[in-house]
């Protein structure tokens, strides 16, 4: 590598470090960062991607088309980041709720950048985009090794600096340790070190290329094994049936992982079609048979996803699952089609499948960060439609999802629900929407919240045994659970005891719900059951068998307290007897 090229890379790295430090200082000066996410995220993406692109394409720095090519991509990603930053923020929420959009942006931004970088290099070198698959293949792996080498180099430098700083600390010198934690030192040093690491690749390029080629050749010999797994599973499946497959809840994830591993191992063996990986003819036919089964797995995944969507509608996770299935379907159908063509040069046309699928993956990723295919927008629209069309009950609907995980789309949906008039249960719907809209953090919702009145009744065992649990009490308790005013640890297999007795000697019986530390006292006020107190004492012993025996035999009663309450000003104290 020429000195001029190395200086170019280090200059861009230094600029990146300075940019990250300035952004950090600006963020510290903002009182409400969320309001500026529409600007913060695109700036970060620009500061990260522009220098990285210029460093990895440094060999073409004198070509005029480099700047417009890189700038156009960075502007596109920055625009997507601005959209996601704007949609992710809603008032009164902290940054934790933005994590999903941030992760999506990082994956799409850097994933699409990594995939498109070899095409950019091909364009700069050959004046065309993708007619030399060997060049694209080599560029992709070269970039992988460059980035891994630079990351390892940077990590080792920081390990040495931390080791030295702590050794100095032992001697009473803490200046270096304090300096390492300061942004003005951390960002520039990290960026410049990473840039130096990238520039070191050229010195050992021949050795590193041989290393990854050898690694791929070794991994490629696992392709017959994965082909055997593909065939064996489909042979066992008809015997065991699909029901066991769906009962797992994660069968589609396993099958997609298997297909992804198949694609990787096939390309490790096939590489750039140079013929370095050799299999005997009979093994090639066996591998081809395994590749022909891939569309069957795609069909199973599509069927499973279709069932879930029909039952529960679209969610963000299901939208992403559909996109992954679409990408893997292109691989599966493309590879199967190439196998059926029986080309003289084994799988010669796979390069076209790989190129088309790579570009499709980039396109889908970009669309998911735009209004066109935003998973959050699709999920909110689907769940809202299910609620309004009465496909899901109001009490079962997750209003807090709209508040805390759906950004501005969810906020707009809650506003829409607060004004709903046509739904048969519109009053309850509006009440729940308003409660969710007023929350500032997600509430813990135990399993009991999802139960209906009759299911909730099964969580309790009334004493005396001949007594009946009032339906009005169950209804009031269900509302308190849904509004997060009460939490229960009761289970069907281990129901909570409820005692019916007069605790305050007013001639009206109260209900005491024994639930360990959460044991509560309910009383009738104005004809409605309301929580009137909390049971104090050795409540941790309420799960012992002796308590159940005492309740079964009717050995419980109310007892006047020997000690009266102590009043000091506005404070009141109870004496708990030993």
Task: Report on this structure.
The chain has 578 residues and is mostly helical. It has a 5-stranded mixed beta sheet with strand order 1-2-3-4-5, sandwiched between helices. Strands 6-7 form a two-stranded antiparallel sheet. 63% of the residues lie in helices and 6% in strands. Strand 6 (566-568) and strand 7 form a beta hairpin. The protein has 22 helices and 7 strands. The mean pLDDT is 87.
Whole-angstrom Rg = 32 Å
Uncertain residue ranges: none
The overall pLDDT average reads: 87
The helix count comes to: 22
Instruction: Please give the order of strands in the largest beta sheet.
Output: 1-2-3-4-5
Report the structural category.
mainly alpha
- Number of DSSP-assigned strands: 7
Distance between the amino and carboxyl termini: 83 Å
Largest beta sheet, briefly? 5 strands, mixed
Roughly what percent helix? 55-70%
Question: What string, H for helix and E for strand, traces the elements in order?
Answer: HHHHHHHHHHHHHHHHHHHHEHEEEEHEE
Shape: globular
Determine the strand fraction and express it as a percent band. Answer: 5-15%
